[in-house]
Write a structure and sequence with these properties.
Elements (H helix, E strand, L loop, with lengths): L1 H106 L4 H32 L5
């Protein structure tokens, strides 16, 4: 029996050393796989973050584009309203000046006070027109949800 133990001991040692070597190789392979997976995870995490930022930026750009379009539309409307208001004011002024001049010619006695009153009326009408335009623009801004 002693001889069986002696013969099996070197074989057993060799088997144990082989198993240890195999486990050490497996450990190195697992460490390498772990490193590769961590790198892959970091890369994917960065790609996801980049895609999320791209999506957010695209949404912001779309919002900016819509606001710029609304602003352009409002500026165009304002220019038209101001042009119409100026033309109306000029027509009213010319019409009232012509009437005032006719009255002065007809009566010959129109006082400077009446003339000043006519000019004041014209100014008040022009201011009322500008105020109405401003109110229309503000109402439009409120209806579109734009508050300054």
């Amino acid at each position: 029996m002693i001889s069986d133990t002696k013969l099996s001991s070197p074989v057993e040692i060799e088997q144990l050393q082989n198993e240890k070597t195999r486990l050490e190789e497996e450990s190195r392979a697992l460490d390498e796989e772990l490193k590769q997976l961590e790198i892959r995870w970091k890369i994917l995490d960065e790609k996801v973050a980049i895609q999320e930022l791209k999506s957010e930026n695209a949404a912001k750009k779309e919002t900016i584009s819509q606001l710029e379009s609304k602003i352009g539309s409002l500026e165009t409307r304002l220019e038209k309203l101001l042009t119409i208001g100026t033309l109306k004011k000029e027509d009213v002024t010319a019409s009232e000046n012509a009437e005032s001049q006719e009255d002065v010619k007809e009566t010959g006695d129109a006082s400077e006070e009446e003339h000043q009153k006519d000019e004041d009326t014209i100014r008040v009408m022009a201011l009322d027109n500008e105020e109405e335009i401003s109110n229309n623009v503000e109402a439009e801004q409120e209806s579109q949800g734009l508050f300054y």
